[in-house]
Amino acid sequence: MAFISLADELTAKGSTAVENKFITKYMPVLDAQAVKVYLYALYLSQSGKANYTAEDCAKKLEMSEDDLKNCFDYLEEFELVSVTSRSPFEVRILDAENIYGSPKKLKPEKYASFASAVQSIITGRMVSTNEFMEYYYILDEYSFEQNALLMIINYCVNLKGNDIKLAYIKKVAKSFAEEGATTAKKVEEKLSSYTSSTPALIKIFSALGIARSPDVDDNALYEKWTKEFGFTDEAIICAARHFKAKNTQRIDAALDELYKNRKFDPVEIENYCKERNSLYSCAGEVAKSLGVYMQNPTPYVDNYISVWRDYGFEPDTLVLIADYCFMQGRNSFERMNDYIISLYEEGTITQSAVTEKLEKTAADDKLLKGLLNRCGLSRKIIEHDRQCLKRWREWEFSDDMLFAAADASQGKSNPIAYMNAVLSSWKAEGLSRLNQLTEHAPISAGGSDKAIIEQHYYDLRAAAKARADKALAKAMKDEVYADARKQLNSLSIKLAFAEVNDENSAKELSRRIAALKEKSNKRLVELGLSEDDFVPKYKCKLCNDTGYDKDGKQCECLKRFIKANKL
């Protein structure tokens, strides 16, 4: 059984968090009275008792206010608290620096000569007692030689000036200690290595217009850029200029990107950045044409522009497509992507091919608008209309025949469906010229009967599509499934290229796609759905609820419907 356990009823009650390092490091050596004061101070700080005074605290702990203050002074010597004000008496609880090792009550008198040396180095201001205590702590905790720490302080002052902050000196000192440089000899060696790289950093800073002097952090980055990554000074400057990086953090990010893309030589970097800038410029032009605001263009470049460029679409062609998509209400990158995929799948990629396609589409839309007007409809053109026109042209009907069918469809409840039936009937009867219509009725069945038939099949198709659309809409409302579906679309496109260019990448993409499919299918099951629910389920599998087979002949289901309804 554990030495200490917690009663069940206690787990539901409030508690005060005490750092493990206080228990393991400080509590064994602290005065018992001071431990009591420290724990109660922790309780007050975490329970939100902002109006508590030193007098209240002393009374609660059954001690005098002077004894309480003496305890806090004692705790301050161990750097567990900081007395921030004497009147009124205020205390701030500090973080204990290290879990291991024994805390030592610092004795400032043993550092008198060191303190004098520190003040002679930092001449621009008076060094405070608290700051001296920080230096004493560093000496004691990290086993620094006094001369070693003085060399570090002198280096920092020379680098940053007399307004140097304590936090920076502590940061540098700790970085030296972590590398084992705590003696004067090792500090001198480390500072020499900084000095050797300083001219190169000064050259880089000067070329980029960075006014400040290089510091320890810059040196660490320079070591990474040159030794780990293998960039030359010229390549670093070239990269910074092309990425418009004006500080070392942005230079580091730029070099990380170049390193991942294996671009090291200035010529390679320049060509890479030109292509990169071209992609960003293209993203801006496409967004402008679509009427889309991009707060951060990078995701649009990565997920759309770069993919479209890999398809073979030129920037001017993408802008042309974006203009068309805006006019058609496809004014988003995602909806434009759907259209581009359709163009890519049919091999329409070059600007001349896309222009021809769009001109033909415009001509078709103009024809469809005229047909809709003749049918008595004033609505916008929808994709279903375009699919119908494509089928009618495959049936080899002229525009005159289409307008004749539109005239016959005026006043019907579903003119386009009725028009489709008329043309199908004409095709079955071999009527292909306008003058042949004078000898035949527009359709074989009576007008009202045919309207009933077409309305029946229209309702069947609409119901099937509505069920599928409703299922997909339900799934896409779920963030988990919607995100997985979008990722799958993007990865599938990338896989198509990887299978040709990079076998290893293709295997990794296939693995990710399989995992995403498993995730999306699992989520669909949780939603009570399956991918099969997204496909319209037509009542008749032979004609897909049109009433006519692929050759334009009456389907068996239509014959049964006519017989059953005595049409």
Quick summary:
The chain is mostly helical and 567 residues long.
Task: Reconstruct the topology from this structure.
Elements: H1 20-26, H2 32-47, H3 54-60, H4 65-77, E1 81-86, E2 89-93, H5 112-121, H6 129-142, H7 146-160, H8 166-178, H9 184-208, H10 216-228, H11 233-242, H12 248-260, H13 266-290, H14 298-311, H15 315-327, H16 333-345, H17 351-375, H18 383-394, H19 399-408, H20 415-429, H21 447-476, H22 479-501, H23 503-526, H24 556-564
Antiparallel strand pairs: 1-2
Give structural notes.
With 567 residues, the chain is an all-alpha fold. It has helices at residues 20-26, 32-47, 54-60, 65-77, 112-121, 129-142, 146-160, 166-178, 184-208, 216-228, 233-242, 248-260, 266-290, 298-311, 315-327, 333-345, 351-375, 383-394, 399-408, 415-429, 447-476, 479-501, 503-526, 556-564; strands at 81-86, 89-93. It contains 24 helices and two strands. A two-stranded antiparallel ribbon has the order 1-2. A hairpin with a 2-residue loop joins β1 and β2. α13 packs parallel to α15, α17 (351-375) runs parallel beside α19 (399-408) and α22 (479-501) packs antiparallel against α23. It is elongated. Residues 1-6 and 440-448 have low confidence and may be disordered.
Question: How much beta, percentage-wise?
Answer: under 5%
Shape: elongated
The assigned structural class equals mainly alpha
- Major sheet details: 2 strands, antiparallel
Rg estimate, integer Å: 39 Å
- What is the helical fraction, as a range of percent? 55-70%
Ends apart, CA distance between termini: 89 Å
Low-confidence stretches: 1-6, 440-448
Could you state the order of secondary-structure elements as H and E? HHHHEEHHHHHHHHHHHHHHHHHHHH
Q: What does the average pLDDT come to?
A: 82
